[in-house]
Design goal:
The chain has helices at 6-15, 28-36, 43-75, 79-92, 94-101, 104-116, 121-152, 160-163, 169-186, 193-218, 231-236, 267-273, 289-297, 373-387, 425-431, and strands spanning 225-226, 229-230, 243-246, 255-256, 259-262, 277-278, 306-307, 311-312, 315-318, 326-335, 343-359, 362-369, 392-396, 414-418. By secondary structure, the chain is α+β, with helices and mostly antiparallel strands. It has three domains: 6-163, no CATH class; 165-218, no CATH class; 225-431, no CATH class. The mean pLDDT is 82.
Length: 435
């Protein structure tokens, strides 16, 4: 809900009522969760779910009415169970539809069969509306009374019973959904076992991709302030190794600031001339799930947000098209007094692998930085200065080795590049007015 919003919740509840594909979107745990949020919150979302269930049930009904035999064949229902259901339907009619909608294993079947067996559409509209309200209400009641019971027992989220599973509650919920979906797929004995196992694998992959895309999309605009770095902060790089730390997207680990450009008026044009490709960033762009997928498959995945003292950048490039491995560069513009050449700090590193990392409560895909970042730093410093006549570079900074605590190894130094006739970062910092 946080990642995709209420429209996606409405769509999920509609799909949950449709035959065959409903097993891939089990929404009942969502209703239970929303019940735990009552009475303070959750009410509007529950109402939305009731509307979605009612809309979806109309779809199931009309599928049964227009293509009944083919739909029933796809559902692979046992003839004996079908005969019992028809006898109940003929005796109870609308009441049977209402009650059956509250019983998850037969709810979708009943909606389809109401269309197959010729129930009047007007009657079904009313019966399915009552059934939708009662079906959602029963799950919400389970959540509400469970939460109330825990509260009566004096158990709060910080208590030992709940704190043990607290950090993993989303993961546990996803595993339960995956287990349920897999069991339902494996029960479909009509298909060969290898095909059913392949379906279960696709379900797991789809859930994993959806969670990761949802997490990235919901945080696409939450990177932090995109602004110039204060000069004093940039000068700190001469005394200590500055670390750009991961922001609200889980794609990257922290990495060192290891590059400084002085006098390069248009680094974007320079990098383009060297064949580098500009990356969209979570800091500078609003990115939806389809755009993330499109860019990734095009070999230009969006650059995640790494923050230097809380400041993000939308200046990101990669050396060539591809996802892994690739060399990536981010630049932060430094606010310098008027009359001084433009200054940029940068983090250059080689993305070497894709890994799985627990991000808060959810397993998330992440890129791993090649641990020996100095190699990429020196190579790109040589390439950039070679492209500008008279440009030079040298290593400056603290020269204190860093260890693998930050997922990389480095000598901790900064490659300071400058164009002809301009002072480098060391000279600019030495000449700045204190304060």
């Amino acid at each position: 809900m946080v990642s995709w919003g209420e429209p996606a919740l409405l769509l999920a509840t509609i799909i949950n009522q449709l035959p065959v594909i409903s097993i891939f979107v089990p929404t009942e745990p969502v209703y239970v969760y929303l019940g735990t949020q009552l009475p303070a919150a959750g009410g509007p979302s529950l109402l939305l779910c009731m509307i979605g269930v009612w809309i979806g049930s109309q779809g199931a009904f009309w599928l049964g009415r227009t293509a009944g035999a083919r739909v029933v064949a796809r559902m692979n229902v046992a003839p004996r169970a079908m005969a019992r259901a028809r006898r109940l339907f003929e005796r109870r009619g609308a009441a049977f539809v209402v009650i059956a909608q509250m019983i998850w294993p037969i709810a979708t079947l009943t909606q389809v069969m109401a269309g197959v067996w010729g129930m009047r559409p007007a009657t079904y509209l009313g019966a399915s509306a009552i059934g939708a309200v009662l079906a959602i209400a029963q799950y919400a009641a389970i959540g509400y009374f469970s939460a109330a019971g825990l509260h009566m027992l004096g158990l709060q989220p910080e208590e030992p019973l709940l704190v043990w599973i607290g950090p993993y509650r989303v993961t546990i919920g996803l595993l339960l959904l995956l287990t349920l979906g897999t069991l339902l797929i494996l029960r479909r004995v009509r298909h060969p076992l290898p095909l059913r196992l392949a379906y279960a694998g696709l379900l797991a992959l789809a859930m994993f991709v959806a969670v990761n895309l949802g997490a990235l999309t919901s945080r696409a605009e939450a990177a932090g302030g995109v602004a110039p770095l204060p000069l004093d902060l940039a000068c700190r790089a001469l005394d200590e190794t500055l670390i750009a730390r991961t922001g609200d997207t889980p794609l990257h680990a922290a990495q060192p600031i290891n590059l400084a450009l002085s006098g390069f008026d248009d680094p974007a044009a320079l990098l383009r001339s060297l064949g580098w490709l500009r990356n969209r960033t979570y800091a500078g762009d609003g990115l939806d799930a389809m755009e993330i997928l499109r860019l990734t498959f095009a070999g230009l995945p969006p650059a995640s947000s790494i923050l230097l003292d809380g400041i993000a950048t939308d200046l990101a490039w990669q050396e060539r098209r591809g996802t892994v491995p690739r060399t990536q560069l981010r630049l932060w513009r430094v606010a310098v007094p008027q009359g001084l050449p433009p200054v940029y700090l940068g983090a250059v590193g080689r993305i070497d692998a894709v890994t799985l990392r627990l991000w808060g409560e959810v397993p998330a895909l992440a890129y791993d930085l090649f641990p020996y970042t100095d190699t990429a730093r020196n190579r790109e410093a040589e390439a950039i200065t070679a492209a500008v006549a008279g440009a030079r570079w040298r290593l400056v900074g603290p020269n204190r080795p860093l260890d693998m605590e930050n997922r990389f190894e480095s000598d901790g130094r900064l490659a300071s590049l400058r164009t002809p006739g301009t002072p480098g970062l060391t000279q600019i910092c030495a000449a700045r007015t204190p304060g």
